[in-house]
Write a structure and sequence with these properties.
The chain has 22 helices and 9 strands. The chain is an alpha+beta fold and 659 residues long.
Length: 659
């Protein structure tokens, strides 16, 4: 369908005098039963609308032609169904699509005359509904009223939507009709994926139900002890056992996940490198307003706020004679309070930033994440159980949002590594599930869930608000961004000290990538100026206009932005390119901060060369193939730069130093 839509739009672009007739025929045939299944009308009309927005076609004639085609197409299908109502739905070619005919009938019986309007926006049912309406006896007057009214809405929705897209793209530069066709088909594909996913889900649930009955029958027939246990778990008459089994399996998976994460962290290997890279990347995103907002958020997960909420929750449960649940909340918090410092003291993983003393000086697992996940998770579950239907999602969503915000704040403020937060979340989720398993049979209405929720929100607002009002300035000062720079004497760096610097780039997964082949001590601008006479230039930036060039099938190495590449979570401070003579490829030189600086001098930057080749899949877009393990590019002889002898890989082959 992509090729069809692209060909039609390109033809219209080259022969605009045929545009009206083609739009009319496309809108008409898309509405004819069965034939319309193979006509990508919506993508074509949106693409033509984009051509209108680019100023190559007039708007009003296109709207008139599209509306007329939609009205007549639906009318033809309706009259065929009305004329041959006794036989047409079972005749060829309708007989080859019985499922589609049945869906069309069900849709029409459910919505009546409204189905004509609704069906216009349902690609799979659109060609069938007018014929089904005629075959099932919809009155002509009602049909044509709805047909004309819906066509007046349907045609502008496609043409004007495409025109807006085309006008936006036109303001950013020339855009080919192939691009518009691709975007339109991509949008349609996404919509179809949603429809297919819903269809699979609706078929999957009955299949699982049948599988459960089959497993139960098989287990009953076997008679062995494991089979009897399986039969109980799969028994359709014992839903509580299935819930318990599912929760138990989830707890086992969480325990296994926590143990595996603990093993990876204790090894101080790839997980530690990934933690450092992700943390550095997040730190590069920090802003003053983000610091202020997430400092407030993180205070909602610290000991003061958590203690106040625990007291409020336990008091409410005791007041309503929910003795066991009150004890369960207290025990869950007590277990968390014992477990977190025990593991921290055992592993002694340093935090990204030195913030606390004692056991709290260590980071794994995150106490904020663990306590928030335990308390907010349990309280959200207690409230949700007493609410009807969809209302149960509200307290669970609020609890999940609070937990997620607190966890995010810990990584953002450099108080914890991502693995610390992940471990705290796993522990908290496990404790919440264990609590739910223990108290699944408790009467949810005894605690007055709606009033309980209001009391908890009030306690959070009062305790959290008071805590923020009195402690914000101290917390903000504690979480202020910090950057550690290691100073190294220039002479030492030139001799052997450069070996102390990172030798390979580390990606966000903690994997060592291509080697650094250059080190530069000096301002990035100075190196850019020194390399400019040799053809090295700054690439286009990542503005919206430049980014959209990837959607142009004619872009080259000079016009495409350079994909961002991170070193230990940091973006490059300088990126230079040197395009090939034919602009089908380019050399790329990226420089990152190393965390080192010359003693009393400038920072030292790390550089890794790369090669990128530009290609154009299907002639629709522009894409980049990158070669990370690239040789050292040819650099000019600059008298103001000092050289060092080449070294064994992965050490840099050359060190450039600003005197």
């Amino acid at each position: 369908m992509t090729d069809i839509a692209q060909s039609v739009i390109e033809f219209i672009g080259q022969h605009p005098h045929w545009a009206g007739l083609l739009i009319f025929l496309i809108a008409l045939t898309e509405s004819v039963a069965v034939i319309g299944l193979f006509i990508p009308g919506s993508p074509i009309l949106i693409g033509i609308g984009a051509v209108v927005g680019l100023g190559h076609l007039p708007l009003w004639p296109m709207l008139v032609w599209a509306t007329a085609g939609a009205i007549i197409g639906d009318g033809v299908s309706y009259e065929m169904g009305r004329r041959y109502r006794g036989t047409i739905l079972g005749a060829w070619p309708m007989s080859r699509y019985p499922g589609l005919v049945a869906r069309g009938e069900a849709f029409f019986r459910r919505h009546g005359g409204k189905s004509i309007a609704l069906g216009r926006f349902l690609p799979m049912l659109r060609p069938m509904i007018p014929m089904v309406a005629g075959a099932l006896g919809l009155r002509p007057r009602l049909f044509y009223i709805v047909n004309i009214a819906s066509a007046i809405v349907w045609a502008p929705a496609h043409i004007l939507g495409g025109a807006l897209l085309g006008a936006s793209l036109g303001a950013l530069g020339a855009v080919s009709g192939r691009l518009v066709a691709m975007l339109a088909v991509l949008a349609l594909t996404l919509w179809l994926l949603v429809v297919v996913t819903r269809w699979v889900w609706r078929r999957l649930l009955p299949l699982l139900g049948r599988a459960q009955h089959a497993v139960h029958r098989w287990a009953v027939a076997r008679g062995s002890r494991p089979a009897r246990l399986l039969a109980r778990l799969a028994d359709p008459e014992e839903p509580d056992l299935r819930v318990m089994a599912a929760l138990g399996i989830t707890v086992l998976v969480l325990v296994a996940g926590f143990v595996n994460l603990l093993r990876l962290v204790a090894a101080h290997g790839g997980m530690a490198r990934a933690d450092a890279a992700i943390s550095a990347f997040v730190q590069a995103l920090r802003t003053p307003w983000g610091d202020a907002a997430l400092t407030v958020v993180t205070m909602l997960g610290d000991s003061i706020t958590i203690t106040a909420l625990v007291i409020a929750a336990v008091a409410w449960l005791l007041l309503h004679r929910a003795w066991h649940r009150a004890g369960g909340v207290a025990i869950a918090i007590a277990v968390t309070a014992a477990f977190v410092p025990l593991v921290k003291g055992r592993l002694q993983i340093a935090r990204p930033t030195d913030l606390y003393s004692g056991a709290d000086a260590f980071s794994f697992p995150s106490g904020h994440a663990a306590f928030s996940a335990v308390l907010y998770g349990i309280l959200g579950w207690l409230v949700a159980r007493g609410l009807p239907g969809r209302w149960q999602l509200l307290p669970l969503s609020v609890a999940a949002a609070l937990i997620g915000l607190v966890c995010t704040s810990r990584v953002y403020l450099a108080a914890h590594w991502p693995s610390d937060v992940t471990a705290g979340l796993i522990f908290g989720l496990g404790m919440t599930i264990a609590f739910a398993m223990a108290f699944r049979r408790a009467d949810p209405q005894r605690i007055r869930p709606r009033r309980f929720a209001l009391a908890l929100l009030l306690a959070l607002a009062v305790a959290g608000g008071a805590h923020v009002a009195t402690g914000y300035h101290g917390a903000a000062a504690m979480y202020v961004p910090r950057e550690t720079i290691v100073a190294i004497p220039a002479a030492e760096w030139r001799s052997e000290g450069w070996r102390r610097l990172p030798q390979r780039r580390i990606d966000l997964e903690g994997e060592a990538e291509q080697p650094f082949r250059l080190q530069w001590a000096g301002p990035p601008e100075a190196l850019a100026g020194a390399l400019a006479p040799s053809g090295w230039t700054a690439p286009p930036g990542w503005t919206l206009a430049d980014a959209l060039r990837f959607l142009d099938g004619t872009a080259d190495a000079r016009t495409l932005p350079v994909p961002p590449v991170l070193q230990d979570g940091r973006m490059p401070v300088l990126t230079l390119i040197r395009p090939d003579a034919d602009s089908t490829g380019r050399q790329v030189l990226r420089l990152w901060r190393s965390g080192f600086a010359l003693e009393g001098g400038p920072p030292i930057l790390l550089a890794a060369p790369g090669i990128e080749t530009i290609h154009h899949p299907l002639g629709l877009v522009s894409a980049i193939d990158a070669e990370d393990e690239a040789p050292l590019p040819e650099l000019p002889e600059l008298p103001e730069l000092s050289r060092l002898p080449n070294a064994q890989e992965p050490a840099p082959g050359l060190v450039l130093a600003q005197p």
